[in-house]
Design brief:
mainly alpha; Butyryl-CoA Dehydrogenase, subunit A, domain 3; two-stranded antiparallel sheet; 6 helices; 4 strands; globular; MOB_kinase_act_fam; zinc
Length: about 150
């Protein structure tokens, strides 16, 4: 899957790098995340059950892959979100996700540079809405400009 000029690869359970289409990549990501979050050994739901030692690295991997999916949606499908009037929701999701991964250092900033222009528009305090929801017209215009420039 490619976003702008960046190629993303999926790595299978043996660590083999796989070049795949965007639909395949998104399916791999969503299936993998679903499998992890429903695994009681990874995300325990019972009181007193310990999280695994690998928990932080697994959460970081999940966040990295979900970022790739969001980047793909913006680079390849943003016009459709505009047509469906879903861009405000997408911008809100993206803003919350970026602020969350920054707060807890879950994705290497080098990984997210591909979307820095959009992140600046949506996460800056000078955006049109103070809550960062991305529902304001200047935030939507910024997202549109980001897509057009790429």
């Amino acid at each position: 899957m490619a976003v702008c000029n960046t190629q993303y690869y999926w790595y299978d359970e043996r660590g083999k790098k796989i070049k795949c289409t965007a639909p395949q990549y998104v399916d791999f990501v969503m299936s993998s995340v679903q499998k992890l979050v429903t695994d009681e050994d990874v995300f325990p739901t019972k009181y007193g059950k310990e999280f695994p030692n690998s928990f932080e690295s697994l959460v970081k991997k999940i966040c990295k892959y979900l970022f790739h999916v969001l980047a793909h949606i913006y680079s390849s499908h943003f016009k459709e979100t505009l047509a469906l009037e879903l861009h405000g929701h997408l911008n809100t999701l993206y803003t919350h996700f970026i602020l969350f991964i920054r707060e807890f250092n879950l994705v290497d900033p080098k990984e997210t540079t591909i979307m820095d222009d959009l992140t600046e528009v949506l996460c800056s305090s000078s955006g049109s809405s103070s809550n960062g929801s991305g529902n304001g017209s200047s935030n939507s215009a910024g997202a549109q400009n980001h897509v057009k420039e790429r």
